[in-house]
Automatic annotation (TrEMBL):
Keyword Chaperone (UniProt): no
Protein origin, superkingdom: Bacteria
Species of provenance: Pontibacter virosus
GO cellular component, one term: cell outer membrane
Protein name: WD40 repeat protein
Keyword line: Cell outer membrane, Membrane, TPR repeat
PROSITE patterns referenced in this protein's UniProt entry, alphabetically: OMPA_2, TPR
UniProt domain OmpA-like: residue ranges: 539-656
Matches recorded under CDD domains: OmpA_C-like (cd07185)
UniProt keyword annotation of Membrane present: yes
């Protein structure tokens, strides 16, 4: 070997040794970072653990262990990222951890992929060690919860869930909403930095809970919240529970003595006085978490772990004594209390008990249940799950009705929120009056004797239909129809269908709204051609062709029944006009993050794309694009406007070559 060859040989060997050395240092550094993250992880301090895992992933994006533990950590405040990380961890290293199938089941469950969740849970069962029978019981329960959730989501209630907004909600947890008797003053609890300028945090790495207040400006607008710390500030958690005695007193939770129920009185200057114990018959050396005093001030419902063998929360009730003290509590009964946590009691004006439970037939985590009181048997009936969308696959707690009972407040962790738990309002969708006339486009006179049939669906997809005939004297029709959905309005004369129009009935949350909707029938205008007609003659006619938009429920991309009809029309038109391509454009409202909305818009476009391909349209004649929230057709300031923005549009792209199919870029 010549000297030059020897030199190259020595350089190559040195380079190899250096690479191995660097790799070893990097690997050791990554292992050290993961171990440090795991120390916080084991204390459930997930926010503190994540920077260590993310530092590893910045160095090594395919580090399965860092992906795995980061994914579990993200479950508390970023469900989508949690799913991404845990799935990637398994793809990189299928056996990254013996519990990987368990966590894949959990993450699929909270992301509404229930069939996948069940498969992962079932795959996990053989990995459970014999000494861990408790885990086998837990997985059986989780499988049942996935089945419960699947059933509830497939049969939603006609309920409108609305986030209270970014003035109140933050990236941290907001919960325990308390509304005043005039519906204009709101207390709530937050774990935001707010009043924690000292930086003091709890053992889980989150800021301590503090109580905040805000006042309604108008409608859904609230003032910037203010901490009411003052005399109520402690070195631990403080949480709002209830206003009572004409809003002059407040029940609150304080993390003293393992957790006690306290009360405070409003002072002459509007501030709150010192917190005092609600009484020794209520507070024990164990955990008391939440409570509710009935309007007559005679009964106190509260949740405690004191009487449970396993340390879970149960609901008890105490009667006020003549001396004003609370008497010895008794259980509300086996119909309510389970071997899991039963918490957050609230008594409605009709005597119904609302509460949150991890037991009964939950969809996952805490669900809200209601139990009617049987005054004859003097006990509560079997609780009913309030169903979806009040409840979700994750925790739903602190359900409180507004003073007039027309809507409710709820704390929940949902996709599209601001982060962790947010406060939401729950409104039951109402029927509203719709009235108007039918005119000919070439005449200003209303047409009497026409039958209008409004065909739509309830939230659970069951069909609904409303019918009226325009009056002879004034051509007016008048109906009450369920609001917050799209109707296909069929207008007929003597059994002959004259036209079918799509009508968006806005969301109505009261019983007094009237919507005016006129229709116009074109008897002789041949320039307007319906989709699905025979092949059009000429490029100009094709260029003027317009398809109707199709619309979606909040945070969904499932095709509605009326959407299928419109897509069938699009397919028929494309089959009759082989020289036409179509661009499918997905749009959303603005309630979630921009990144989330871009994905949702893409899913909506893909849903239409997939259906058209199933109908025999070549994929090469279709192109999809998502605009997310970027191209609204209306401002996102009302439920009806947001419905208009949750849409898919179809645009014609005329091909230059009609002899063969050309892919559209």
């Amino acid at each position: 070997m010549n000297n030059l060859a020897k030199l190259f040989s020595r350089l190559s060997l040195a380079l190899a040794v250096t690479c191995v050395s660097v790799y070893t240092v990097d690997a050791q550094s990554n292992r050290k970072l993961v171990r440090t993250g795991n120390k916080f992880f084991d204390r459930e301090n997930y926010r503190a653990a994540l920077p260590y895992y993310e530092q590893v992933l910045a160095n090594d994006p395919n580090n399965a262990e860092a992906l795995y533990f980061a994914g579990i950590s993200y479950m508390t405040f970023d469900k989508e990222k949690a799913a991404e990380y845990i799935n990637k961890a398994q793809s990189v290293k299928p056996n990254v951890d013996r519990d990987i199938e368990y966590w894949l089941g959990r993450i699929n469950h909270i992301n509404y992929r229930f069939d996948d969740a069940i498969k992962h849970y079932q795959a996990y069962i053989p990995n459970i060690r014999k000494r861990d029978d408790w885990r086998r019981e837990e997985v059986a329960m989780l499988i049942q919860q996935s089945r419960n959730a699947q059933k509830e989501v497939a049969n939603p209630k006609d309920i409108f869930v609305k986030n209270l907004g970014g003035v109140v909600n933050t990236e941290y947890s907001e919960h325990s909403p308390v509304i005043s008797s005039d519906d204009n003053y709101l207390l709530f609890t937050s774990r935001s930095a707010g009043n924690n300028q000292s930086g003091a945090k709890a053992s889980d790495g989150e800021y301590f809970e503090d109580i905040y207040e805000t006042r309604r400006i108008q409608g859904d607008e609230w003032e910037q919240p203010r901490s009411i710390a003052g005399n109520l500030k402690s070195s631990g958690h403080d949480a709002s529970i209830q206003l009572f005695d004409n809003d002059t007193k407040m029940l609150l939770y304080r993390s003293v003595n393992n957790g006690d129920i306290m009360y405070a009185e409003r002072q002459a200057d509007g501030s709150w006085g010192d917190a005092k114990s609600i009484g020794s018959n209520i507070n024990t050396a164990d955990f008391e978490s939440d409570a509710f005093i009935t309007p007559d001030n005679q009964r106190l419902y509260f949740s405690t772990s004191h009487y449970s063998e396993d340390g879970d929360l149960d609901i008890y009730v105490s009667q006020r004594q003549r001396n004003g003290e609370w008497g010895k509590p008794r259980s509300v009964g086996a119909a309510i209390n389970t071997k899991f946590d039963d918490d957050s009691p609230y008594m409605a004006a009709d005597g119904s008990l609302y509460f949150a439970s991890r037991g009964h037939n939950t969809m996952g985590g805490y669900d809200i249940f209601v139990a009617k009181y049987d005054s004859v048997a003097k006990r509560f009936a079997r609780p009913e799950n309030l169903g979806y969308p009040v409840n979700t696959p994750d925790d739903d707690t602190y359900y409180r009705l507004s003073p007039d009972g027309s809507y409710a407040y709820l704390s929940s962790y949902r996709i599209g929120g601001y982060g962790e738990k947010d406060i939401y309002t729950i409104n039951y969708i109402r029927a509203a009056r719709v009235t108007g006339r039918v005119y000919a486009t070439n005449d200003s006179l209303a047409i009497p004797g026409l039958e209008l049939v409004f065909n739509g669906q309830q939230a659970d997809k069951r069909p609904i239909s409303y019918r009226d005939v325009t009056k002879q004297e004034d051509g007016l029709y008048d109906l009450r129809i369920l609001s917050g959905r799209t109707y296909q309005v069929e207008i007929t004369k003597d059994g002959q269908v004259l036209t079918t129009e799509s009508f968006e009935m806005p969301m109505v949350l009261n019983d007094t709204t009237t919507v005016e909707q006129n229709f116009y029938i074109d008897f002789g205008d041949s320039t307007r051609v319906s989709p699905g007609a025979p092949a059009l003659a000429g490029k100009d006619a094709i260029a003027t062709m317009e398809f109707k938009n199709i619309y979606y429920d909040t945070d969904k991309y499932d095709l509605r029944a009326e959407s299928i009809r419109e897509l069938d029309a699009v397919a028929a038109f494309m089959k009759a006009n082989p020289n036409v391509n179509v661009s499918i454009e997905g749009h959303t409202d603005s309630r979630a993050s921009e990144q989330y909305n871009m994905t949702l818009g893409e899913n909506r476009a893909n849903a239409a794309f997939d259906y058209l391909v199933q109908q025999g349209i070549s994929a090469r004649r279709l192109v999809t694009v998502s605009y997310g929230e970027r191209r609204p057709v209306a401002t996102n300031n009302s439920a009806s406007n947001m419905q208009l923005n949750r849409r898919t549009e179809f645009k014609i792209i005329q091909r230059q070559d009609t002899q063969q199919e050309v892919p559209v870029n």
